[in-house]
Amino acid sequence: MIKQIKGLHHVTSLASGARENNAFFTNVLGLRRVKQTVNFDAPDVYHLYYGDETGSAGTVMTYFPFPNAGRGRAGAGEVGRTSFAIPTGTSQAWLDRLATFETDGLAQDIRFGEKRVLFNGPDGDLFALVERDDGRTPWTGNGVAEDIAIRGFHSTDMRLRDGDASAELLRFMGYEKLDSENNVTRFIVPGGNDANAIDIEVTPSAPRAAQGAGSVHHIAFAVDNRARQLEVREALLDTGYQVTPVIDRDYFYAIYFRTPGGVLFEVATNEPGFARDEDTAHLGQALQLPSQHEHLRAQLENLLEPLEG
């Protein structure tokens, strides 16, 4: 069994417009844009990162906003909903705030005894704000008061036709079953970070998901460093998973593999972090380019949609 994984590192999704995406996560949800860079494989597309002050592991939502991308089709074999942690007793404040911004899909429910505010992102992305006691320090620079501000991730939902093989994988990755409720089973990694939960939602009759704007591309799990990552990679390979070589993503090192249910998993290092190319006070303010794309700077700065204005 793998013991190096600490919980979620980041969640990466697809969007149809950079400016709208940036406004939603910074103005509506109050997260900090900790990095604006580009897709390594398609440098004419942004890669935007939102999180806490420093982009701590377990707080960072990232997006590839492909201009005018078509909507994804919800279904099985994907991450269906991404959940953030908010302080206990703040659901009504968030309902009021989201209503002010005319946010779609507003609803409330309770899962595993925790109150949730459900809502949709600009491309139909499914999100939840989950009440719980959480000691993480939130980012408050975008005008959301500290007493209600998002603390980071709570969990993600994997929507699957059959959850058995993916549950076995999570157990191998160090997760333990916490509880089951209706068609949802929650797994947590003991001793992990504060983003330590994964929910498996079994929907046997759901159609297969098709990715597009609003779809989660992959979820990433955190390990402390490259040595721990190589140990995880070797363990996965020994179990029969097809795992990529280590890829340098500038702000972390990544490996990827496809799960039995179809969801793409990444294992990412907590090092070197988002301050490697700009100081913490100015994170996300300037366009940062991977070295292999620096020669395209003038062209990209003219091509990429301005994030503000």
Helix and strand arrangement:
Elements (H helix, E strand, L loop, with lengths): L7 E8 L2 H11 L3 E7 L7 E6 L8 E6 L12 E9 L4 H10 L6 E5 L2 E7 L5 E6 L20 E9 L3 H9 L3 E6 L2 E5 L8 E6 L13 E8 L2 H14 L7 E2 L3 E7 L5 E9 L24 H7 L6
Parallel strand pairs: 1-4, 5-8, 9-12, 13-16
Antiparallel strand pairs: 1-13, 2-3, 3-4, 5-9, 6-7, 7-8, 10-11, 11-12, 14-15, 15-16
Strand order in the sheet with the most strands = 2-3-4-1-13-16-15-14
* CATH top level label: Alpha Beta
CATH architecture label name: Roll
The CATH superfamily bears the name 2,3-Dihydroxybiphenyl 1,2-Dioxygenase, domain 1
Domain VOC: 7-132, 152-270
Protein name: VOC domain-containing protein
Pfam family, one: Glyoxalase
InterPro entries: Extradiol_RC_dioxygenase, Glyas_Bleomycin-R_OHBP_Dase, Glyas_Fos-R_dOase_dom, VOC_core
